[in-house]
Structure formats: C-alpha cells, structure tokens
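Structure in, sequence out. Go:
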C-alpha cells in the first residue's frame, strides 16, 4: 500500500525496498536516497540500527519512521537520534503521506 501511494506522488520515486535491517543498511549505503521510510521492528536488526548507521556514515538521507510501535520511549529515542518525522502507521498514516508529498514538492523548488 505504501509503495503504491508513494509511487503516485509527483516527484517521488521508490528506488529500493528492504525486507530486513541488514538489507536496509546495505541498500541505503548503495542508493543514498533522499528519504527513507522506516519501520522500527524488522528481522535482522531494527530501525534504530538503521538510523544509527545513516548517522554514522554522514548520509544526508531524511528518515521518516512509520511504525505500529509508536510508544513514547520509541518516539523519544528517534528524536534523540535526529529523526524529524515519526508516525504511528495505525493512526497517522495519512499525515505521513502528507509529509512525503511536502518533501517531494520541496525537491522541485531546489
């Protein structure tokens, strides 16, 4: 559902998908995307590992967390790691899509 929605956003293109944390880290290092939409729970690692890797490698990738595990401690940890966008996929999915649309539009202005 998410891939389909993002694919329909003007100036947005899905350049990669990952099934686990290891694939996510490898793909992000290789593709250097402008935006990563990330869940916190995944096989072979977790979203925090992926975020830390992005920061460690000084990638300019923006991280948008979209998760069902949107507890206050998870939100706070993401904030400490520099994540600007954090959404609960069960209640804030549409807001996440709006942010993705806004970020894609801002790329047009650059």
């Amino acid at each position: 559902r998410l891939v389909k929605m993002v694919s329909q956003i003007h100036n947005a293109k899905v350049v990669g998908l990952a099934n686990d944390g290891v694939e996510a880290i490898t793909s992000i290092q290789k593709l250097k995307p402008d935006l990563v939409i990330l869940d916190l729970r995944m096989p072979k690692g977790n979203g925090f590992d992926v975020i830390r890797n992005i920061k460690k490698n000084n990638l300019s990738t923006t991280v948008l967390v979209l998760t069902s595990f949107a507890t206050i401690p998870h939100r706070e940890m993401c904030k400490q790691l520099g994540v600007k966008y954090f959404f609960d996929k069960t209640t804030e999915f549409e807001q996440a899509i709006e942010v993705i649309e806004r970020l894609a539009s801002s790329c047009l202005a650059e």
